[in-house]
Design brief:
Layout lengths: L15 E5 L3 H13 L3 E5 L2 H10 L4 E5 L7 H10 L6 E5 L4 H10 L3 E4 L4 H15 L6 E4 L2 E4 L4 E4 L2 E2 L4 H12 L4 E2 L1 H8 L9 H13 L5 E4 L3 E4 L5
Parallel strand pairs: 1-2, 1-3, 3-4, 4-5
Antiparallel strand pairs: 6-7, 7-8, 8-9, 10-12, 11-12
Helix pairs in contact: 2-3, 6-8
């Protein structure tokens, strides 16, 4: 089996996720696995906390157990949707019957998994939901000479991998996922740091300055008073 180079460590597209799961062991496993893949993860152990966090924080996706204490997952999901929260929701359920799956989809879920499940399948479904939400049909997202490979969680410049720190990667990948849009500093802060992290928006300027030294000039524009925009057309 020799002759093959070791696989590069995988880091998924930097997105902020909520994991609402009351089983402590499973919640810890999901948090550790998803963080290892590069996601920013917050955890809610009951339905009331999950509902509050989902309404108050800008999550890109939620993994939601239906059997939460305090308030069940379907009620939480309905509250999110009624309040206009549109992040993709992947529901988890131990109830393996079609009634619960239909009820979840009708309440606004985007996909579901029945326990027990393989971690790899959950991560694949998360990747697919995030791509779909971002309007991307494939795992590769290109902007001029830059290519974001969401499967291997790396950015290539002219087909060569860029050497990026974890935070530089998160900032650049988020801009690539939202290319041609103006992204504010606060948006970047909210999506690259977990809820309990000491956030400092000034660090965003540092990361952007470093990125500009690593990619061709003009790709990252500063939109005065608003934030940044990544665009191949701006060069």
């Amino acid at each position: 089996m020799g002759g093959h180079a070791p696989a590069a460590p995988r880091r998924e597209t930097p997105m902020r996720l909520l994991v609402a799961e009351d089983e402590p062991v499973l919640a810890a496993q999901l948090k550790a696995a998803l963080e290892k893949s590069g996601y920013v993860i917050d955890v809610a152990a009951d339905g009331l906390d999950a509902e509050h966090q989902g309404l108050s924080e800008p999550y890109d996706l939620a993994v939601l157990d239906l059997g939460l204490p305090g308030r069940d997952g379907l009620s939480v999901l309905r509250a999110w949707r009624e309040a206009g929260r549109r992040m993709p929701v992947l529901i988890l359920t131990a109830r393996d019957n079609w009634h619960d799956k239909v009820a979840g989809i009708d309440a606004g879920a985007d996909d579901y998994l029945t326990k027990p499940f393989h971690q790899e399948e959950l991560e694949a479904r998360v990747r697919a939901l995030l791509r779909r939400a971002g309007g991307h049909a494939t795992a590769d997202i290109r902007c001029g000479p830059l290519l974001l490979d969401t499967r291997q969680s790396r950015v290539l410049l002219d087909d060569a991998p860029l050497d990026l720190t974890s935070h530089e990667y998160r900032v650049l990948a988020y801009l690539l996922m939202h290319q041609d849009e103006v992204v504010s500093r606060s948006q970047l802060v909210e999506h690259i740091y977990a809820q309990d992290f000491d956030r400092d928006s000034n660090t965003i300027e540092v990361f952007v300055a470093r990125l500009r030294r690593k990619i061709p000039p003009g790709l990252i524009q500063t939109v005065r008073g608003l934030g940044y925009r990544l665009s191949a057309d701006a060069r």
